[in-house]
Amino acid sequence: QPLFKMSHSCSKVGHPHPGQPYKGGNFCAFLPDNHEGLKIAKLLKKAFERGLTFQIKSYNGEERVTWGLIPHKTSWDGGKARNGYPDVQYLHEVGTVL
Predict the structure, then answer these.
(1) What region holds the Deltex C-terminal domain (predicted)?
(2) Which of 22, 24, 55, 68 is the most buried (most CB within 10 A)?
(3) Which CATH number is associated with domain 22-97?
(4) Are 82 and 71 in contact (CB under 8 A)?
(5) pLDDT in tens, 40-86
């Protein structure tokens, strides 16, 4: 169960409002503990290291860190509609995105 923490900081060139402060947050995602899950975990780590996991968006005039375009499972239950399991296609879909 990887946990990502993004601190408060100032955005850089390429962000929606360069030089503006933004709020961070705690982000938690889940993967199954099996061969395919471990393979996806390695790809997600590479995406994180390349700055592809998160993005900065404006909400009510405040800049905040949010998940990027890579889909993450943020719950063990609730199904696909709630970013959870069961979702039999998730590992294939996220693997394609990565």
Answers:
(1) 4-95
(2) 22
(3) 3.30.390.130
(4) no
(5) 999 999 998 898 998 888 888 888 888 999 999 999 899 999 999 99
